[in-house]
Write a structure and sequence with these properties.
This protein has seven helices and two strands; from the N terminus they run αααββαααα. The protein has helices at about 5-20, 30-35, 40-50, 75-85, 100-125, 130-145, 150, and strands at about 55-60, 65. A hairpin with a 5-residue loop joins strand 1 (about 55-60) and strand 2 (about 65).
Length: about 160
Amino acid sequence: MIDTRFSTALQIVISVAVNEEADIRTTSHSLAEGLDTNASFVRKLLLPLNEHGILVSSAGGKGGIRLARPRGEILLSQIYASVTGDKKIWATRHDIPHEGLVGENIGDLSEYLSERAEQAVVEMLGSVTVEDSVAELRRLEAQKNTPTETQKGPPGREPGNPS
């Protein structure tokens, strides 16, 4: 089964950032609706995000979920570490016969590759902030909403106007 904790936590944190900018209150219920999941799953992910100083939650009618610090200071690697913990990118099989070149060494090779892959992921995520991510989402949205030359039609004519 593919682990979706990071991608879900990323969506949670970015949703909170965008909602704060728009002065919209964020709750576990509103996040759950946006994720098409239940609020208890969201609250389960909120716990480590709160513990690691990424989000702050407050109860009550005026409570909600907010960023714990400016979005330009929150690295994606921090979100990743908070929700994945010690879980590796992939698990190494240790229940195989340890005979011959492959059997004797495949576990060590797999561990080595897993550690390098994990390091590369953390380094890449460590160079991107929540602020960068919001800007990239806006760029992608603008790109989708900008007609291409083929959608615009020939120069001098408006789309849908044959004259």
